[in-house]
Amino acid sequence: MNNFVDVDVVVIGAGQAGLSAAYHLRRTGLEPGRDFVVLDHAPEPGGAWQFRWPSLTYGKVHGMHALPGMELTGADAGRPSSEVIGGYFARYEEEFGLRVHRPVDVTAVREGDGGRLLVETSEGTYATRALVNATGTWDRPFWPRYPGQETFLGRQLHTAGYPGPQEFAGQRVVVVGGGASGTQHLMEIAEVAAETTWVTRREPVWREGPFGEAEGRAAVALVEERVRRGLPPQSVVGVTGLPLTDAVERARERGILDRLPMFDRITPTGVAWDRLPGRDGEPEQGRSVDADVILWATGFRAAIDHLAPLRLREPGGGIRLEGTRAVRDERVHLVGYGPSASTIGANRAGRAAVRDIRRLLDRDRAPAAA
Questions:
Q1: Can you spell out the DSSP letters for 26-73?
Q2: Is the dihedral of CA 232, 238, 239, 240 positive or negative?
Q3: Running DSSP on this structure, what letter comes out for residue 15?
Q4: Could you say which DSSP state residue 264 is in?
Q5: Average pLDDT of the residues of the chain
Q6: How confident is the model over 172-188, as pLDDT tens digits?
Q7: DSSP 301-368
Q8: 298 φ, ψ to 5°?
Q9: Of 305, 355, 356, which is closest to residue 329 (Cα–Cα)?
Q10: Residue pair 37/18 in contact by the 8 Å Cβ criterion
Q11: Can you give 190-248 as a three-state secondary structure string?
């Protein structure tokens, strides 16, 4: 006798991608709690949104698409996105009876007996015929390493722990990162800080004009190609560039978005460059900037370490997918990974994963029914 709970499908993660998959599993006739289970390590509904900083109001969120089967209507643009989307996800889980288990930590997924996967968790072990991994990236903030980093006497923090601009009043802040979060942090902090410095690895790419379906498909295709080759996924935002909004234009005019290339080292009192182009034709020279805070807006990596026992990674470091299915194991689907990391992509991926899983379950049952 074993201590496993047998189910057909385990969904790990109850963000946009996980809830979308759960919705479609239920629509195919599978019963939550009996045929499939949704596990979420967060304390409340809302996926990663519940951890967003208070100054990220719903009106500042770009491209939030509704979950399948239930629109998000009447949201107050001035409320924190964590509250708006957290409440929406909670209503969604209740409306469709998804019975999400939380907080539950998944520690490992291993090969079991009889073609089943064993999902080891803080509430016990599940034996499942198929797995939907929808763990996103929020739990794996990426911290680059630079010489002297451990000597810095000020404060270092990552976007994952960004509290909003108020804590930086009167301070000298270095913001590292050229993505959407970095620019949003920088523009907020500049209003209250004594001084801000923006540092990015590459020259920022600003996107003017509308961003329609054709542009979106082209961007997703580039990310998808990396995943097909077994490389770690690049973010969709990294491909599309940064929207040139009115707020961004104003910040550029004020010099807030004048960036510097990455520094060479971190000192006890700030950051330093060995050589920077001189101004007005002057020769290259060293430079340093004093700082009280270094804010690393350097992105996230896929939170998939619990899948390591299945050996799904390719030599390039990523998990190669066909659609949402792991090439190395047809029982495993990754949604909200790579090309499906956007909210609309997560919805589509959830539906596609369930379609494949349903075929797998039906195929496995066919000999017994014959």
A1: HHTTPPBTTTEEEE--SSSSSGGGGGS-TT-BGGG--S-PPPTT----
A2: positive
A3: S
A4: S
A5: 89
A6: 999 999 988 899 999 99
A7: ----GGGGGG--B-TTSSB-EETTEETTEEEEEE-SSGGG-SHHHHHHHHHHHHHHHHHHHHHHHHHH
A8: -105, 15
A9: 356
A10: no
A11: CCCCCEEEEEECCCCCEECCCCCHHHHHHHHHHHHHHHHCCCCCCCHHHHHCEECCHHH
CA dihedral 101, 93, 300, 134 (to 10 degrees): 70
Query: Scanning the structure block, which residue is given the tokens 């999902």?
Result: 119
**Six-digit token string for 74:** 């009447």
Which of 3, 8, 1, 4 lies closest to 34, judged by CA? 8
Taking CA atoms, 154 is separated from 67, 113, 196, 291, in Å, by 42, 52, 15, 7
Strands 265-267 and 270-276: antiparallel
pLDDT digits (tens, 9 = 90+) for 315-339: 988 999 998 999 999 999 999 887 6
**Biggest alpha carbon–alpha carbon distance for the chain:** 83
Model's pTM, two decimal places?
A: 0.86
Nearest to 295 by CA among 158, 144, 125, 154: 158
Amino acid symbol at 64: M
CA dist 350 and 348 (Å) reads 5
**Interacting residues of 168 by C-beta distance below 8 A, sequence separation 6+:** 189, 192, 193, 293
> What is the 3 state secondary structure string of 275-313?
EECCHHHCCCEEEEEECCEEEECCCECCCCHHHHHHCCE
Q: Given pLDDT bands bounded at 50, 70 and 90, which one contains residue 359?
A: very high
- Give the integer Cα–Cα distance in Å for 312 and 122: 23
Q: Give the amino acid at 319.
A: I
Q: How far apart are CA 335 and CA 47, in angstroms?
A: 14
Q: Which amino acid is at 101?
A: H
